[in-house]
Every structure is written in C-alpha cells, then in structure tokens.
Amino acid sequence: MARDTEDDWVSRMADEVIAAAERRAPTKPVVVASGLSPSGPIHLGNLREVMTPHLVADEIRRRGIECVHILSWDDYDRFRRVPAGIDASWSRHIGKPLTSVPAPEGSRHANWAEHFKAPMIAAAGRLGIEFIGISQTERYTSGSYSAQVLLAMRARARIDAVLDRHRTKPKPDGDPRRPSRLTADESLAARAAAEGSGAATEDDGRAGGTYFPYKPYCTFCERDTTTITHYDDDTTEMTYVCECGHTETVLLATHHRGKLVWKVDWPMRWAYEGVIFEPSGVDHQSPGSSFVVGGELVREIFGGEQPIGPMYAFVGISGMAKMSSSKGSVPTPSDALEIMEPQVLRWLYARRKPQQSFTVAFDQEIFRLYDEWDALGRKVGGGTASPSHAAAFVRAVGTAAGPLPRTPVALPYRTLASIVDITTGDAAQVLRILRDLDPENPPIDRLDDVRPRLDCAGAWVMTQMPADQRTFVRGEPDAELLATLSPSERDSLAMLLDRLDEHWSLDGLTTLVYAIPKLAAGLQMDAEPTPELKAAQRQFFALLYTLLVGRDTGPRLPTLLLAIGSARVRSLLGG
Questions:
Q1: What are the two backbone dihedrals, phi and then psi, of residue 182, each rounded to the nearest 5 degrees?
Q2: Is 459 contained in some domain?
Q3: 360 SS3 class
Q4: What are the b/e assignments for 42-80, b being 16+ CB within 10 Å?
Q5: What pLDDT sits at residue 173?
Q6: Does residue 202 fall inside a structural domain?
Q7: pLDDT tens digits for 507-550?
Q8: Together in a domain, 22 and 116
Q9: Domain match, 484 and 451 both
Q10: Is residue 90 one of the residues assigned to a domain?
Q11: DSSP state of 78
Q12: What are 176-185's pLDDT values in tens digits?
C-alpha cells in the first residue's frame, strides 16, 4: 500500500508499535488493546476506543506480522447510575457489578452488561473488527488476577505514594488558594470528568487515613459500599464492613469477590496482557489521571511498560452535543449502520487522526458525506487520490482478512433517499425510477444491485428525515394556482412539457429544467448562466415544486419528475 508518512497516521503508529514490540517481546504476537464498560449504550464516541487499535492492528497484519487485538469488557465495574429511560427502581442495584444487575426490562440477555455488549459485538462483526473479548468479571472471579491483587495489596504504601504525587495539582507560585490555569486539553478532560465519563471519575482507593488499592464487593448485598478495616500481608486475611451492616473476614488469596481500583487495575492489565498499544480519551490523559499515573505504576509496581497510548478526541453527531451514555438515547454503531454502509463508517474513523474530532452525520449532511466518499472512490479507481487518502479508502473497504461486502452499483445516496421518500419505499416504483435514470442503459436490473445502500437510504428517510421535509406529491392539480399563472410562466411550463419525453432520463431532465429559463429568455440551452438567469431558474424551480408537491422546495427536480412519472407530471402542470 502506498504510504504518505506525513498524513497516514495508521502507518506511522503501526511503525511505532512494531518497533516497540520488537524491543519488548520480539518472540510474541503484538498486542493492542481496547476497553469498554457496558454500563449503558456503547455509542459512536466509544467506537473510537475500538476502531483506533483495530486499524493499527489491521495494518500490522497486512504486513504479515501476527497481531492480537484484545477488548477488555469492564463488566466487573460498579453500576454507577440509572440511565435515562430505565425504571428508577434499578437504583437499588447501584454499587453492584454490572454482571450482577438485571438487564433492562424486556431484554433477552442474562444481565445488564450482556445486554449492552451484544449490539457492539454485532456491529463490530459488520465492521470487520476482529478482537478477543475478555470479561473482567471472569478474570477477577476465577482468580486469574489473584497474584496481581496480592502484589498490589503488599505494595499499597508505594502505590499510595505514587498516587499522592498526583492527587493535588500544584498551584501557580505555590499559592494553594490560587486556581491553576488549565490547558485546553486539561479543560476538556475536566469537563469530561464532570459529565461522568466512567472509570476516569472513580476514586483511587483512599478512605480517610488508610489506603487500599482493592475494593471488595459485599457477599451479602453485592455492592461495593465496603471499607477494608484490616489486612494481613502474610496470611492475606482481610476484614471489611459494608454500609448494609454486613461484616466479614476472608482470605484474599482465595476470595475473589472484588477488584482493584481503576487507577491500579489498568496498569496491572497492561503488564498482565503485555499490551503494546492502547489509546484512550482525554478524560484518561489529563495530568494526574489514570493513563499518566498508570505509566508510573506499571513500571514501579507491576514490572511492565506503559503502552503507546495516543489520546483520541470526541466524536460528535450532527446537531447534537457531546455524547454521553448516561443521558440515554445516544447513537450507537448499530444506529449508524442502519443508515450508512460499514465502509463509510470505517472511513470516518480511518481518515482522521485520533486527536482530531469529527462528526457523524445523521442529518442531511450524510448526502455530502456520501458525495465525498463516492468521489474518493472514483479518484482511487483513476489513480489520482493522494497516498494517504488512498490508504484510508483501502482500510475502509476491507481488512487484512479480505474485502467487506459492497453495494454492486453505487448510485448517489441522495438520489436513492429522494426516490424512497417520494415512493414511500414501494419496491416496484423504486425499481421503475432507477431504470428510468438512464432508459437507454438502465443502471440496474434488480434492487439487489443497489443494496445495502438503498436500504441505508430508506432507513435514513424513515428514521432521520424531519417530517416537515417529507415529500407528498399532490393528488390533484392546483387549479387555483394554474389559473393565476402569468403568460411567461405558462410558456415556460409548455416548453418543459413539449420536451419532456425526449429528455426522460436523469441527465436529460437535469439539462432540461436548467435550460427552460434560458429558452424563455431567447437563449440557447447551453448558454452560460448569468446572475439574472440563475434568479430566473430559482423562480422556475419554486413554481414547479409548488405545483407538484405544494411547497417551494423539495428533492432534486429531475429525480422528482422521474418518480412522479410523465403522465402525472403533465396532469399536475396543466398539460
């Protein structure tokens, strides 16, 4: 694959990861990692946590190097809050592991975590993302991390000392009363933390004057509302009390109902799994946050190395504020795949460097997005795309394992959406119109030729298109308006109807509707447009829309005319 070392971020990161892996573990597969907490809908911002290492891992595999992408499901995290749309009675489960919380009402899944994992797993499959899923519930409760937990408990004073260096951000000039001046990234991280971004906001294990890096789940109420009151390093005897009133003494070496606090848990896993590359959001990378502290803990306590860990920026949605799964109703990868093909969604993440924010279009910006995508495909096919753009395209349309399924005939998304809108998705009508786009050389023989893009466009019309923008063709001619037309307006309509049949194709009707105002002005059809002509064209288009659909705007006129059909167009225009 041709590479542009300036702009091809995936290749540059793959170079770094391969070099680090050769230095750290030359005989082992390269390990890249993601981590997701299934505490609520896993949204398109969370997808960057998975897509960034996926793209790097895939590039490494394309070079013939074995690479493993692990996805740690933080399903042993505490249930922090009840998301919007869930019955308030679920608040009784706050503090329990996500795998001990019942799934939302009506779910077919065993618990809360599995309910929110399932859509992401399905979306990852459609996106060509291969990963090895690791349940943190299974890891902790099986005792897989037992040695690491006991190590952390023995080293609790050293861990506390590392954390203490970061607990209070120094103030300028040593004056504790003066607030520190935060950088833009630090301010963004603070905002993310304030919004409740998950593990980044958890406490670090200090309770009063005593520090323990481990938090037991109460065996009676299952919550983590516990406080360790005694621990013996030699015997691993641990006593805890819970807010529910339960007190218990156990041997931590064999008692596996609890977990390390996040700022210790994460670096422990880096060392345990041998992670070389793992990105994280801004809320994990501000001064004193988990990635920064983890870099010290992984070296000083667990004997490992911090992964290469680029910070990734937020992902937005057209017309929406920053996504937060605690708010509910946030678009997920599955939602996006309802309205766009997997290749296009992959491309959005592949073409932007991780530190660059971008927006996923759920509004009419999706038309422009698809125009850009189709134009890039033509450039790649013609050999005129820049190396970095071509690389992003190649990564979008397939993986090292092979190409993703594609729409055989990639007609413009906006055209398909207009046709579905006008026909309300009637299959026979859609097929007729698509064939009429070029009657001499129909672009398709069957609707499967334009699937899945047609289905995506149809889903966009039905779920995202504002109701006041839907197109409803008049059932009867507007006799009152037709009776009040000026002579020049009647002449323009007559010229259109006289030439309608000979121009009955998408390109032909496009030429015709723009040409009528020129002909009305005594000019040739191919005359260069002037400001006056452009104004006349806008007035003519508004007249056609009003007579056809009852408002002065609508879908592209050539598509609209094809959808309505010649006979009905003549009737509505008074022909």
A1: -90, 145
A2: yes
A3: strand
A4: bbbbbbbbbbbbbbbbbbbbbeebebbbbbbbbbbbbbb
A5: 43
A6: no
A7: 999 999 999 999 999 999 989 989 999 999 999 999 999 999 99
A8: yes
A9: no
A10: yes
A11: B
A12: 333 333 343 3
Which pLDDT score, from 0 to 100, does residue 529 have?
A: 87
Looking up tokens 């009419």 gives 364
Cβ 274 vs Cβ 302: under 8 Å = no
Domain end (from 469, 494, 523): 469
Q: Is the pLDDT of residue 198 over 50?
A: no
Q: Which two tokens stand for residue 524?
A: 């040739």
Q: Please write the tens of the pLDDT for every residue from 261-305.
A: 999 999 999 999 999 999 998 877 777 788 999 999 999 999 999
Say yes or no: 423 and 558 in one domain: no
pLDDT at residue 186 greater than cutoff 60: no
Is residue 312 a contact partner of residue 80, using CB atoms and an 8 Å limit?
Answer: no
Residue 328, domain extent? 1-197+262-404
If asked whether residues 541 and 399 sit together in one domain, one would say no
Structural domain total, the chain: 3
Q: Is residue 207 part of a domain?
A: no
Quickly count: other Cβ atoms within 10 Å of residue 359's Cβ.
17
* pLDDT-based confidence at residue 206 (cuts at 50, 70, 90): confident
Per-residue pLDDT, 306: 97
Enumerate the β-bridge partners of residue 214: 260
Cis check for the bond before 403: say yes or no (omega within 30 of 0).
no
Q: The domain that contains 103 carries what CATH number?
A: 3.40.50.620
Final residue before a domain boundary, out of 369, 404, 439: 404
Three-state DSSP at 250 gives: strand
In whole angstroms, give the CA distance from residue 219 to residue 222: 5
- pLDDT at 328 (0 to 100): 54
Helix residue ranges, H only, 25-84: 44-62
Per DSSP, what are the bridge partners of residue 226? 242
Pair 383, 442 in one domain: no
DSSP string spanning 273-290? HT-SB--EEGGGTSTTSH
